[in-house]
Amino acid sequence: MRQKVFGNGGSVTTVETDYVGPFHYEDADGDGSGATTAIQFFAHEEGRVRRAGNELVYEWFLKDHLGNVQVMFADMDGNGAVSPDPVNGEVLQVDHYYPFGLRMAGLSLVPGVKNSYLFTGKETQDELSLGWIDFGARMYDAAAGRWNGVDALGEEYVAISSYVFVANNPLNHVEIDGQFFVVDDWLIGGIKGLFNGEGFRASAQRHARNSIEIWKSFGATDVVRSSRFRTLQVLSRFSWELPQQVTGVFIAHFANLTIGVNEVENLHNGTIHVETKLGRKGEGWDFTLGNIITTNDFSNYEKAGSSRRLKTKPSQILNHGLGHYLQSRRWGPFYAVIVVASPSASILGLVTQKNPREYYWPENNAERLEWEYNEKRSQGTEVLKRINSQNPKLDFNPQEEMKKRFYQNPKQNED
Fold it and tell me: What angle separates helix 200-215 from helix 242-257, to the nearest 10 degrees?
């Protein structure tokens, strides 16, 4: 591949760059004759080897977990150590980045020979001062956090704009060549599809969609509340609720990669429902971390009840999970104490064939918080219709709900 760069000013300077694998050649006179063409450097995994006159200079890169080059250095004096002082020329370049790849000009330092392979290890093109990054398939504008063209594989993920960079999650996803962002869920999902009969493409797309919806949990809000309330919901997840929110996202992703997830849906009340493929028929279970309610396969226990557990409707499971989310908002990082204690209560309930929500205070408290919250948010028939139309699984009726709650004799609910 060949690149031509034309200079501006009183005299026109043309520089031709030839890319031959990792080798970079330049023809300074630009006449195409090759008379002045010479190798400039060749790149390798840990840095590059640059020609300086008749000598070779070994320059090394320090990278972060996403492959962004942050420091370029060289042992110029050959003493086996590199001085951090940039004056002596051994620290050749220092770069810092905003999340979407724009260099922080005030913190970056280029005292010596410039390296253009920076964000995710891709070359930055400085022509016309645009600063676009060449990923191969298309150019990326780090200032806008968007691509300058459509993705050739855009039909593989129609739920995401073709111009969006790594699904707006640059801290966890990495672009390889500008054609679809590489995400562990997509790749592993495709591999699983080869063995379970679903097919690589269908399974990869489903796992990728689940992954995106899980990450969107950070921004899920209650659609019937005020803008101020919804803003505080999101801010709380990045501060007061952050420990359990991150843990909930991690567990949901782990479930998506391993046991499988049927679907991830926004319940429009500030919570996200992750329905896994686990669970014995007739037995419904759930746990809530942050605003993520993880349950077993609803189809299992909608068909039949269990003699050891209450026959619980999906709407009751999801509404109860909302109660735990409200506890998470109220108690913040101290909510972990409840998470640790809850399995003990669940085991005790299985042994005694009693409903833990009857006598275990955190469960009972979650029921009360959810009831009060839903009763407040559903004032007015039109609002109630809006809630249930957005997600029929919730099926909340404040006049009838308490009549069919869990405060009944468990033995009356057994088969």
Answer: 170
